[in-house]
Amino acid sequence: MTEDTTTAEKSADTKVTEAQSAALALANLSESARNEALHAIADGIEARSEEILEANAKDVEAGEEMLEAGEYTQAFVDRLKLSESKLESIAAMVRSVAGQEDPLGRTLEARRLDEDLELYKVAVPIGVLGTVFESRPDALVQIAALSLKSGNAVVLKGGSEAAHSNRILYEVIREATADVPDGWAQLIEAREDVATLLERDDAVDLLMPRGSSEFVSYVEDNTKIPVLGHTEGICHVYADEDADLSMAADVAFDAKVQYPAVCNAVETLLVHESVAADLLPDLAARYREADVELRGDERARDIVEMNAASEADWSTEYGDLILAVKIVDSLEDAIDHVNTYGSKHTESIVTETADHAERFMRQIDAASVFHNASTRFADGYRFGLGAEVGISTGKTHARGPVGLEGLTTYKYHLEGDGQLVATYAGEGAKPFLHEDFAGEWSPGRLSTE
Amino acid sequence: MTEDTTTAEKSADTKVTEAQSAALALANLSESARNEALHAIADGIEARSEEILEANAKDVEAGEEMLEAGEYTQAFVDRLKLSESKLESIAAMVRSVAGQEDPLGRTLEARRLDEDLELYKVAVPIGVLGTVFESRPDALVQIAALSLKSGNAVVLKGGSEAAHSNRILYEVIREATADVPDGWAQLIEAREDVATLLERDDAVDLLMPRGSSEFVSYVEDNTKIPVLGHTEGICHVYADEDADLSMAADVAFDAKVQYPAVCNAVETLLVHESVAADLLPDLAARYREADVELRGDERARDIVEMNAASEADWSTEYGDLILAVKIVDSLEDAIDHVNTYGSKHTESIVTETADHAERFMRQIDAASVFHNASTRFADGYRFGLGAEVGISTGKTHARGPVGLEGLTTYKYHLEGDGQLVATYAGEGAKPFLHEDFAGEWSPGRLSTE
Questions:
Q1: Closest residue on chain A to B374 (Cα)
Q2: Residue A424's closest chain B neighbor by CA?
Q3: In the β-sheet with A185-188, what is the strand arrangement from edge to edge?
Q4: What catalytic activity is recorded (chains A, B) (predicted)?
Q5: Minimal-distance CA residue of chain A relative to B424
Q6: What percent of chain B has pLDDT over 90?
Q7: For residues A147 and A200, what is the distance between their CA atoms, to the nearest angstrom?
Q8: Cβ separation of A411 and B369 shorter than 8 Å?
Q9: Do the beta carbons of residue B224 and residue A221 sit within 8 Å?
């Protein structure tokens, strides 16, 4: 049908090298060309929905056999399964990525170093992204769309359980983006290919692993390439002595129950000892009604009957309807607990006292620190970052929820008219102006043409 | 004298852990406290100059023995040597770091997610920096000053040839910063301690190795910690067919001769074939006068007598008065050559044609791309970034010359009045506002206090 049918025969090394070659040309593709290509992907998904659903049916069939064998959960098979309406929403997602503001080409800073010597810091793509993601066919399309929008070439590795779906979706994307520099998106399938990908620090500029914390840690342990990902989400809500207790109960409930499987859900509730007796009984009843298992320290268990928390509970990401509860003597104890056991993801204090909020937010080392709001707000969409690329628990490059900007870097453009450093050095050196100004880079604006 | 005398007995592991403990408190030290501590360091260096010079004399003496034995160069020993005036300029450098704008606490973005739900992105320190640097006693003071200004704890490892100087300078810094959270700066000395440092990804957030490209590569190969450094500086000047030839000659001369030992000096001159015969003879004569050895491809040697360049020359960072010269047939050939052999550091085109400049600057993948200016401008000071922390050839976090901003990350602060995600999800979800506004985070500004 197309050259994509040879995909399986090319080595992962070759594919990474092809992505690297495509990246330079892709970096300069106009915004309109990138957006047109994204619309073509969306159209292609709709036009070829029958084929896609047929391929997906093979994955789902295999998944259901594994479900019967007790290997997979129903939720896993549900995530694997595509439908006409799901394909429509995937196409809509791609069109919405096309509609996002262009992350490329913006002049981030402009500075006049001297008369007719102008420095511009311009947003550009990072280059080649290496991605490994879970067995959801929509993940492949989403990651390809975000990469294309941000002008990055991408190597895609999906879960093997979605192999048939991934192959047809990749083919649709390749066909729809025939005008994009050839090789910009590459599909790898074998587990060994991931090892190859991790070794190619000469060609891959950023890795984006998704999936379990263990997998992200494995990636970090086995590559020199920078990794954008989050390893754990051990988030806390702290009900301060000066909390509005009804607000504290609502925030703590929302943070656990609204969607317990995600990384920004709360895992440990910290309660100041002076309000514990007022807060806990009603809140525990609400949790019980929502099937939340509570595991408390001794003082919490003195107030409400619940299971006993062990030391391991303070550093466990349940990702489930389980909540650890601890009574603390002071704001300082709460801060210490979070800095000791937290994963630097998202931490929330409920208090009416501004000074307490300030100390909590300043003294805790986490990507997101909240005052009187649910930890579940830590999310690219809710933060208004547009499409979410991922969440990072790293402290360099990008931190917390990451939008398309996280897939960009910058280049310094200097426009001169023949300036030499010798003029600005040594005895009688000419001083620099170093004046920031509002301006966009326009190539050769100082040249004589 | 102080507890510093026990420094040598503590293990590197303990020191890294102490830095980690100090980092949290240091992150919240006020700007005035950080600046006062910097001034105290400068004062301490001046007040204890005799002791410092005595200690330095031991290093210099040992260095001179090695010089006589032919192990060290005179330049190496010169860099090792301190003097009253050099100490004064080191103290002045520390005061100038104190005078820089505070890189911390700035609100980088403010966005209203909804009424009374405000998100602030605030600049904060990265945490713990691990630094390994060359045998220049001034390097220790500079790195400690930059770390303190940016609120980061730091582990310092200097060259063993400067051990006596480093010890006394470290002691002066420790004494002068008694009001800074204890343990914020740590000195490690043994080569094995570097291995320990590289393993502590649990505690160290960013590594800044300085020295040879080989050493930086070694660090990258042996750690999971993000690395800020540059491995090579293979920079080009391209004299286009539409170049002002007198400008091209001046830029190419400055880029090589003004300071050949540094990473932003040019290593290969590319010349369009149509101007080579006009440009090269005079320029070669100027280079010869400045003792520059030229190594040309065949066509360059047809025009001017020079040594022959081998394939290896195109990818060699000379750091010396040697320049490779290549004739190219087109702008595209020049771009291809740079993308093949360059190190993504700094590239310059000399041309009067804006479109040629644009293509060169857009299609070359490098941190800095210049039009009609010497590559030697690629430098934090000249770029107006204030104190230069380093130059990065990486593409994530920071790229090109890096100022104090490169030692910061950010935290998201969310101020609410009890908002729940359940309100904004599912059927009848409340829409977000997502309005950017100009505002600084002020803790608890929405709280009822």
A1: A420
A2: B382
A3: A185-188, A153-157, A128-132, A206-209
A4: L-glutamate 5-semialdehyde + phosphate + NADP(+) = L-glutamyl 5-phosphate + NADPH + H(+)
A5: A382
A6: 84
A7: 18
A8: yes
A9: yes
Contact A164, A32 (CB under 8 A): no
What is the average per-residue pLDDT within A182-186? 97
How many Å apart are CA B359 and CA B368, to the nearest integer?
14
Give pLDDT tens digits for B273-323. 999 999 999 999 999 999 999 999 999 999 999 999 999 999 999 999 999
pLDDT at A43 > cutoff 50: yes
CB atoms within 10 A of CB B157: 22
Tell me if A375 sits within 8 A of A348, measured CB to CB.
yes
Judging by beta carbons within 10 Å of its beta carbon (0-12, 13-18, 19+), is residue A298 exposed, middle or buried? exposed
CB A441 within 8 A of CB A114: no
pTM of this structure: 0.91
SS (H, E, C) B322-349: EEEEEEECCHHHHHHHHHHHCCCCEEEE
Contact A374, A260 (CB under 8 A): no
What type of residue sits at position A385? Answer: L
Please tell me the distance from the alpha carbon of residue B111 to that of residue B437, in angstroms, as a whole number. Answer: 6
Identify the residue whose tokens are 């003792």.
B291
Domains of chain B, CATH where assigned? 3-103+124-221 (3.40.605.10), 235-385 (3.40.309.10)
Q: What one-character DSSP code corresponds to residue A49?
A: H
Instruction: Tell me the Cα Rg of chain B.
Output: 26
Site from A421, A424, A430 to mutate, B interface, most B CB atoms within 10 angstroms: A421
Dig out the tokens for A58 from the structure: 């093979």
Q: Which residues of B touch A355 (CB under 8 A)?
A: 443-444
Cβ of B443 within 8 Å of Cβ of A367? The answer is: no
Dihedrals φ, ψ of B217, to 5°?
-60, -40
Residue B408 token pair: 């910061």
Kindly indicate the confidence band of residue A2, based on its pLDDT and cuts at 50, 70 and 90: very low
Tell me how far apart the alpha carbons of residues B215 and B41 are, in angstroms, rounded to a whole number.
Answer: 30
pLDDT in tens, A215-269: 888 898 899 899 998 878 999 999 999 999 999 999 999 999 999 988 999 999 9
